[in-house]
Amino acid sequence: MLNAEQKKYLSQLSKKTLIDFVSEVYGIDKMLDKKIERLLLQSDKPKLIKKLTTTLKGLRRRRKFVDYWESSEFATELQHLASDIMSLYPAQPRECLTLLELFIESTNASLERADDSNGYIGDIYRSLTSFWLAVASTCYEQEKRDIPVDERDILSQAWIKKVKVLADDNDYGTKDSLLENIDQLLSETEIRGLIGDYQQERENIQTKKAIKDTLNERQNSPLSDDAFSINYEKMVIEIAIKNLTRALGDVGFFETIFFEMQETRPVHPRRLEELLTFLLNQRAFDKALHYLNEEWQSDGLLDKIRRLDWLSHIYHMQKDTDALMEVLGEAFELQSTPSRLKAIMAVASPAQQSKWRKRANELAEQQENVFMATSLLLEIGEIELANEVAVARHSQFADVHYTDLTSMLKDLPTKTDLLQVIIYRTLLNDILDSSRSKAYGHAARYFDRLTKLDTVISKSSKPYSELATHKEYVITLKDKHGKKRSFWEKVND
């Protein structure tokens, strides 16, 4: 991308010079050619619309499979199409909306013939939903202005039907945000009417499900494919109703709808989180606290911690420091991690910080996990003690995942030379012990770091403490892995 100075010089070039340059580069690169063609079409909107219509219709007819490596390029093509379509807005909203809907119609066809493991293609189609809502809102308002008041009810029903058709065609989840944000397009009355339509469908499905369940029970047969289909259809409808209710922002109504769809009470914490998320978005803190204190029923450690995290989030939003400190402390006692200690220190007073440093020290001594014990000590600035614990329990580092070890290395403070030695030796040993030849380059770099650390540690008053010296370590390494020539060659490079 050009910098500001380059753009300044470019602006000073003559029109003829720029035309000649574009003419010269056209035909060199296909992607560049397409960009130039797209730019030229911007000055001829009727021609652009015709071109886009043809391209979008062709998009649905394509059959060639787009593999993983081609998906990024295909997504870029789709992104350009979306940009060209939106260039018509707001000057030509109706034409823009027609093209967007034609684009959206190609969703299933495109995703069925593509490996979209990276999600690039799906992301483009998901973005069309927000574009459609913005453009549709403009079109709807224009249409209401253009017709008599007594005909607006018919228009309203037409738009409600359009929204429902669009929302129901969502096999790949690209329109998940449509109903949740439908307040951008429809009025409260229209949304409630659409909810009523879905509720009627839900009742019909429940009746069908009851009949099917009774039949299966009489025949003493397991759930059929048809029964599974009914359950899935019921789930999709319920999601639609809840999303529409979110769009209304009506707390009481959402609560009613939410509990109507629960088969048991109390609700499992993982399901309750859906209600809590809505309540916090509406800043209905008292209601959220009620459900966390009255409805949240679980003795599982992770659920207990999750509840405390919800409470800390609420108290943080309310700026209730005392309550926040209490739940942060309770969570830290249950899960003594550096990140939880850091959260406490961020809001604690100096006196409280002193108290929690002392408590973190105590908990570090009790930690069975050497990585967690060392991390806690480092978090409270007990560097010397962290080194001592690491040395005393150095063999336990072999049980720590390499990603945790490499992550720790990035954030280590000064005067942690012995801890660094332990980590580098652990990583090096793991690679050589498992004979991962592709990682020998990393192993060689670890060996080099150990050599450099040795020049510092050997000059200290207590070099290596209980650890083997670098010389002793190298001898052991050669005895065990001396035949791994490809590794030693990398070391000697």
Written description of the protein model:
By secondary structure, the chain is mainly alpha-helical. It has a domain at 392-493. It has 25 helices and no strands. α6 (93-104) packs antiparallel against α8 (120-146) and α11 (225-248) packs antiparallel against α12 (251-260). It is extended. The mean pLDDT is 92.
Order of secondary-structure elements: HHHHHHHHHHHHHHHHHHHHHHHHH
Quick one: biggest sheet?
none
Quaternary state reads single chain
- The fraction of residues in strands falls at under 5%
Rg over CA atoms, rounded to whole Å, is: 32 Å
SS elements, strand count: 0
Q: Determine the structural class based on helices, strands and strand pairing.
A: mainly alpha
Short description:
The protein is mainly α and 493 residues long. It has helices at residues 4-11, 15-25, 30-41, 45-61, 71-86, 93-104, 107-112, 120-146, 152-168, 188-219, 225-248, 251-260, 269-281, 285-295, 301-318, 321-334, 338-347, 350-366, 370-379, 383-392, 402-411, 417-433, 440-457, 470-481, 485-492.
Q: What's the topology here?
A:
Layout: H1 4-11, H2 15-25, H3 30-41, H4 45-61, H5 71-86, H6 93-104, H7 107-112, H8 120-146, H9 152-168, H10 188-219, H11 225-248, H12 251-260, H13 269-281, H14 285-295, H15 301-318, H16 321-334, H17 338-347, H18 350-366, H19 370-379, H20 383-392, H21 402-411, H22 417-433, H23 440-457, H24 470-481, H25 485-492
Helix pairs in contact: 4-6, 5-8, 6-8, 9-10, 10-11, 11-12, 13-14, 13-15, 14-15, 15-16, 16-17, 18-19, 19-20, 20-22, 22-23, 23-25
